[in-house]
Amino acid sequence: MTLQNLLAIQSLIEFNAQREDIQRLLAAAERNLQDASVTAISDENRFDAAYKCIMQCAMVALWANGYRPSTSKPGHHQTAIQSLALTIALDSRTVILLDKLRRQRNLNDYDGDPIAPSVVEESQRQAQALLRRVKEWLSQSRPDLC
User: Which of 5, 14, 84, 96 is least crowded, fewest Cβ atoms below 10 Å from its Cβ?
Assistant: First the structure.
């Protein structure tokens, strides 16, 4: 699968992000990562903040490649996460792990499944690593957006 294939099946749409858009979304991702470390809130909210950072990083990667997910079709979170292999060449093992976190988020949001402290910690580690990776990729591949 390529980004062009995802565009053809309407999972993605073309999007021309400006530097300001990218910087605003990166700043939001950084705030969410900070919020994920606030121990005064529940594990579920900490997990949500870390997951939000992950999604914002995935959006930055798509935007920097000229796309965004089509939100009119179901599965746009899955598309954004799985496209990280195509947008920033993220390894498949990490993409699979991020997708597991997405599924955990769905179980919590829609079924009320609790979030274990170990999952909160893993989501924070993954969010931090992805944010760092996206920033590095931007500086190397799209310095015009930095």
Answer: 14
The domain of 123 spans 3-145
Read off the amino acid at residue 93.
Answer: R
Q: Find the CATH number of the domain harbouring 125.
A: 1.20.120.330
What does the block give as tokens for 62? 């798509």
Instruction: Measure the CA angle with vertex 58, ends 114 and 94; round to 5°.
Output: 65
Q: What are the φ and ψ backbone dihedral angles of 105, each rounded to 5 degrees?
A: -60, -45
Write down the residue that tokens 């606030």 correspond to.
Answer: 38
Confirm if 112 and 90 have CB atoms less than 8 A apart: no
pLDDT digits (tens, 9 = 90+) for 45-54: 999 999 999 9
| Residue 47 identity | F
